[in-house]
Amino acid sequence: MSQVSFSCTEQEGKVARAIARRARALLLDHKVDRDVLDITMDIVATHCNGNPLRLDDLLAADDVNFLHDLGGIARHLNRETGKLGNHFSPRFSQRAAA
């Protein structure tokens, strides 16, 4: 079994951490306590293991779409493979090349 890749660029890592900080703040408003590192790892694992994300667009998203993607990733990420399950596709996934 292959390991989950967390290999992203420095810039992608910075944006992923910014997303995680924003997510934590929003979640705390709803009495949900989730660690920034855990959220960052979910985002990077998703991005680097078959579902590249439009990270800048996700960071800039309105709260509803932002929380949809972060909640879906948290719920559907297989932490052993880095793949999303149950046919979940984040709204801020990169577009497939035509």
Could you walk me through the main structural features you see in this protein, from its secondary elements to its overall organization?
By secondary structure, this protein is mainly alpha-helical. 54% of the residues lie in helices and 0% in strands. The chain has helices spanning 10-29, 36-48, 55-60, 63-76. Helix 1 crosses helix 2. The model has no long low-confidence stretch (mean pLDDT 94). It comes from Bradyrhizobium elkanii. This is DUF6874 domain-containing protein. InterPro entries: DUF6874 (IPR049239).
Quick structural gist:
The protein is mainly α. It contains 4 helices and no strands.
What distinguishing features does this structure have?
4 helices, DUF6874, DUF6874 domain-containing protein, mainly alpha, globular, 98 residues
Low-confidence stretches: none
Q: Mean of the pLDDT scores?
A: 94
Provide a count of the helices.
4
Could you give the order of the helices and strands?
A: HHHH
Largest sheet descriptor: none
Mass-distribution shape: globular
Q: How many extended strands?
A: 0
Strand content: under 5%
Helix-strand category: mainly alpha
Rg, rounded, reads 13 Å
Proportion of residues in helical segments: 40-55%
Give the distance, in angstroms, between the N- and C-terminal Cα atoms: 31 Å
